[in-house]
Design brief:
InterPro entries: HAD-like_hydrolase_sf, HAD-like_sf, HAD-SF_hydro_IA, HAD_2, HAD_sf, PGP-like_dom2
Radius of gyration: 17 Å
Structural class: alpha/beta
GO biological process, one term: DNA repair
Family: Belongs to the HAD-like hydrolase superfamily. CbbY/CbbZ/Gph/YieH family.
Pathway: Organic acid metabolism; glycolate biosynthesis; glycolate from 2-phosphoglycolate: step 1/1
Oligomer: single chain
Strand order of the largest sheet: 5-4-1-6-7-8
Protein name: phosphoglycolate phosphatase
Length: 224
């Protein structure tokens, strides 16, 4: 039995539109208007709420204002929770791949740096939570990716083994997390980080989920 671990934001789903809308809600609440662009700032969105707030503050000439980041972050989380699935879409073929792995007897789980409650809510609203055997979020443990502990917990919580697991992700955080645990990583090239992920030297790259089955079979051959 193999375990296929998926990152969420930027890997299974394009959540950038709703994330950026939540960050812009904070800036509008501050009275300075929207600071982030839904098209141009996708990559920052996938690095989390604090990263988006820092970018907006930098554009306001307030780089390094961590007190303001801390003040706005709870508001961002609430704004995001209130409108978590307005623009979000699953990437083409993602759930087809998940179902193929499940049908073949593999375990499928999620390890994300999105807070666990938000991840649970989003997947439930998208109608796909039941397709995953386990979920570990940013706050499930005291540490988050790239620390290997959440990835280990995602694998073991799904009933899998470390030496028969692979992580599917989209950022250097995923690449480093997999390396820290000693498992292979497959990075997707269809997200905003696509042009640069090859520079991270992952074990494999995919440009569409139709390619994933063959890649996983190569990295972790099925038991005879």
């Amino acid at each position: 039995m193999r375990t296929i671990v998926f990152d969420l934001d930027g890997t299974l789903a394009d959540t950038s539109g709703d994330l950026i809308a939540a960050a812009n809600f904070c800036f509008e609440h501050m009275g300075v208007g929207a600071q982030l662009d839904p098209a141009l700032d996708q990559s920052t969105a996938f690095h989390g709420g604090r990263a988006m707030l820092r970018l907006g503050l930098e554009r306001l000439g307030r780089a390094g204002d961590e007190d303001e980041v801390s003040r706005q972050y709870p508001l961002l989380l609430q704004a995001y929770a209130d409108r978590i699935d307005v623009f979000t879409t699953l990437y083409d073929g993602a759930m087809d791949a998940v179902e193929r792995f499940r049908a073949a007897g593999d375990r499928v789980t999620i390890c994300t740096n999105k807070p666990e409650g938000l991840a649970e809510t989003l997947l439930t609203r998208l109608g796909v939570r039941g397709a995953f055997d386990h979920l570990i979020g940013a706050d499930t443990l005291p540490v988050c990716k790239p620390d290997p502990a959440p990835l280990r917990a995602a694998i073991e919580g799904a009933g899998g083994a470390i030496d028969r697991a692979v992580l599917i992700g989209d950022t250097n955080t995923d690449r480093q997390c997999a390396a820290n645990l000693g498992i292979p990583v497959v990075l997707v090239t269809f997200g905003p980080n696509g042009p640069t992920v090859a520079d991270l030297n992952p074990e494999a790259l995919i440009s569409h989920y139709d390619e994933l089955d063959a890649v996983v079979d190569r990295l972790i051959p099925r038991a005879a």
